[in-house]
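Re-run with default settings, no changes from the original entry. Doing this only to confirm the output is reproducible before filing.
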Amino acid sequence: MKKLIAIVALAISTTVFADGRAIDTSKLSKAQIAELAAKAEEMGATSPANVSATVRKEAEAWGDMGANMGKAMVGAAKEVGVAANEFAVTPLGRVTVAITAYKIIGRDVIKIVIGSAILLLGWTIGIWVLLTKRWSTVKYEYEPVLWGMYKKARIVGITTPDDVATAKAWCGGLTVLISTIVGLIVIF
């Protein structure tokens, strides 16, 4: 996935900077000019056909991963002397499948789970800090209910001092920002 994102970013950035300006090479030696031409040719090698081929290779790799998992499962079943479908149902077969899956995609899954947890926790805390009335003065109006047996509270107004509102905005905003950055770094 990282390679695909990098390829797409590279493809977009090369089209952005392709403006066709001529470069003054009068002060360069012939060896330097040849080196520049070789680098320009190498940079121009990224084309939609190459990106398409890279994406196809990535898709084939994921397809091969599934086939390899199946081969690993069948190999483990043969070692035990049981059919593959029967082996997959047994506790040993489940452990074998889990270990094989972890070896193939385990780190990516763990990074996604931990990064998502960081994002969820950080955003929850940040939004709670922004929306809580804990540091505000809340005025209530009480209405008697059932001939005054108990009172029903209704919020009339909420007053938040300016310094508290500013601190809440900074703390909540920074919590959301930092958790977003850290969560995305962990995921990618």
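Strands lie at 137-145, 150-159. The first strand starts at residue 137 and ends at 145.
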